[in-house]
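seq as requested:
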Amino acid sequence: MTWEELFYICAAVAGAMSIVLLYTLKASPLDIGEPEPVSNAANVFAQRGAADRGGRIAARLRIAV
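struct tokens:
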């Protein structure tokens, strides 16, 4: 087996894993019907709650949150 064949095998495995994860990996517990976890009290954003994440940066980037 040459290094090129090994490279193509690794690329194929990584590509197959990416396709599987694209359809099975979820971004949030809400995507599977579970509630959001409670924010840790020691967290910097604990007073604002989990729903107020990324508001300022989203506004700067003009992203709907």
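The mean pLDDT is 81.
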